[in-house]
Design brief:
The chain is α/β, with parallel strands linked by helices and about 270 residues long. About 20% of the residues lie in helices and about 30% in strands. The strands form three sheets. Strands 2, 4, 6, 7, 8, 10 and 12 form a seven-stranded parallel sheet that branches. It has a three-stranded parallel sheet with strand order 1-3-5, with no helix packed on it. Mean pLDDT is about 75; it is low at about 1-30 and about 30-40. Belongs to the glycosyl hydrolase 28 family.
C-alpha cells in the first residue's frame, strides 16, 4: 500500500508537466470544434463548481525533510508526506474484478472521493496512461487485479473536467460514480481502436451530467451510461438521471457511440438526451 501511494504521488508530478504535441489528432479536433461552433442544444440546470481557491490545509514537503536544491533525492520526503494522509476505507469486494481477475483493482492515476467544487482543467495538456503495457498483460492474462482508470471521482458534487487530452488509459478514461452536477467539456480522449475496454466517459449512478464538445477515439464505448455493477450496484440502487450529451465526435468501429444499459444493476437510467 505504501509503495502504491508513493507511485501515485510521483505520477501526479508527471501529470503537471505533461504537454500535448501538435498532431493530426489535434487538427482533427480543431475541425470538430469549428463544425459544431455556436450550435445550441437542450439545457440542463446544473450547480456548477465555484471558482477554485486555496484550501485551508496546505502540505509542505520541507516539513518532511524535502530539499529543493536540484540535487538531493526527495524520495523519502515524498513517501512520508503521502503516508501522513489518512487512508480511505476500501469499497466492499465480492470476490472478482471486471477483468475476470481474482479480485481488487490496481490504483487509478487520478482519484477523489467525497469532494465538492472539483475543477480538473488545462490548456489541452495530455494525461498519458501508458496503456500498452497494461493491454498486453491483460491479453496475456498476466494481471492479478483489474486495471485502473485514468480518472475516477466518487461521491462528489459540482465536478468540472475540461480542456484536457486523456491518452492510452489502461482501461476506462473518465469514470464519475455517485456524483451530482458533473460537466465534461472540451475533452479529447485517444486510444487505439483495438485497445481493450478503453471506454471514453462512463457516468455511473450520477445525476445532472452534461457531456459536450468532446472528441473520442477508443477501443470500446465512447460514452457508456451506467448505474452500478453487480452486487454492489444492487445494494446502492442508484440509477443515472438527467444526462445531456451533445456535439460529440466518436470513432469506435466495434463498440457503441453511446451505450445505455451496459451495467444497470442500480436501475434504468432516467431522462437522457
Amino acid at each position: 500500500m505504501e509503495s502504491s501511494r508513493f507511485t501515485i504521488a510521483c505520477l501526479w508530478a508527471l501529470v503537471t508537466i505533461a504537454v500535448l504535441v501538435p498532431s493530426e489528432c489535434t487538427r482533427t479536433r480543431a475541425r470538430h470544434d469549428r463544425r459544431w461552433g455556436g450550435e445550441r442544444g437542450p439545457e440542463l440546470e446544473l450547480d456548477l463548481p465555484r471558482e477554485a481557491g486555496c484550501r485551508a490545509h496546505v502540505k509542505n514537503l520541507t516539513e518532511f525533510g524535502g530539499v529543493g536544491d536540484g540535487a538531493t533525492s526527495n524520495t523519502k520526503a515524498f513517501n512520508d508526506d503521502v503516508n501522513d494522509w489518512p487512508l480511505i476505507d476500501p469499497l466492499p469486494s465480492y470476490g472478482r474484478g471486471r477483468d475476470s481477475a481474482a479480485g481488487g483493482r490496481y490504483s487509478n492515476l487520478i482519484m477523489g472521493s467525497n469532494l465538492t467544487d472539483v475543477i480538473i482543467t488545462g490548456n489541452n495538456g495530455t494525461i498519458n496512461g501508458q496503456g500498452k503495457i497494461w493491454w498486453d498483460k491483460y491479453k496475456q492474462k498476466k494481471l492479478d487485479y483489474t486495471r485502473g482508470y485514468l480518472l475516477e471521482i466518487l461521491y462528489s458534487d459540482r465536478v468540472l473536467i475540461s480542456n484536457l487530452t486523456f491518452k492510452d488509459s489502461p482501461s476506462w478514461n473518465i469514470h464519475p460514480v455517485y456524483c451530482t452536477n458533473v460537466v465534461v467539456s472540451g475533452v479529447t480522449i485517444l486510444a487505439p481502436v483495438q485497445s481493450p475496454n478503453t471506454d471514453g466517459i462512463d457516468p455511473d449512478s450520477c445525476s445532472g451530467v452534461r457531456i459536450e464538445d468532446c472528441f473520442i477515439i477508443s477501443g470500446d464505448d465512447c460514452i457508456a451510461i451506467k448505474s452500478g455493477w453487480d452486487e454492489y450496484g444492487i445494494k446502492v440502487g442508484l440509477p443515472s438521471e438527467h444526462i445531456i450529451i451533445r456535439r460529440l465526435t466518436c470513432i469506435s468501429p466495434t463498440s457503441a457511440v453511446i451505450a445505455i444499459g451496459s451495467e444497470m444493476y442500480g436501475g434504468r437510467p432516467r431522462r437522457t438526451s
